[in-house]
Specification:
Blueprint: E1 3-7, E2 10-13, E3 18-25, E4 28-39, E5 46-52, E6 57-59, E7 67-72, E8 77-82, E9 91-101, E10 107-110, E11 114-119
């Protein structure tokens, strides 16, 4: 199985910034795409940002202009820089990857999540 180390979550005042990090390890043949999702209490999980192997990115409308996703292919890691945080940005942030493991089939894998709390 894939192993995830997610970090950077925590408490921040509204208007502040956080940088989330996700490092994926395991027997990886090809990392196709990496994503950050989030889920607020009582809400659906939603896509925040994604980045594919050619570094094309996409963002949710709610975070455009405030979030930047980046990746390090050599380290199989993905980061999410979030600025000007709002209370509605709070929730559990999950790292998700589209990956082909060695000697296995392409699939989607999820990290355990990291909590982000934004004060009013």
């Amino acid at each position: 199985q894939m192993q995830f180390v997610e970090s950077g979550g925590g408490w921040v005042e509204a208007g502040g910034s956080l940088r989330l990090s996700c490092v994926v390890s395991g027997s990886i043949f090809s990392m196709h795409a990496m994503y950050w999702y989030r889920q607020a209490p009582g809400s659906q999980r939603e896509l925040v940002a994604g980045i594919v192997s050619d570094d094309r990115t996409n963002y949710a409308d709610s975070v455009k202009g405030r979030a930047t996703i980046s990746r390090d292919n050599a380290k199989n890691s993905v980061n999410l820089q979030m600025n000007s945080l709002k209370p509605e940005d709070a929730g559990v942030y999950y790292c998700n990857v589209d990956v082909t493991p060695r000697n296995s089939y392409r699939g989607s894998y999820w990290g355990q999540g990291t909590q982000v709390t934004v004060s009013s």
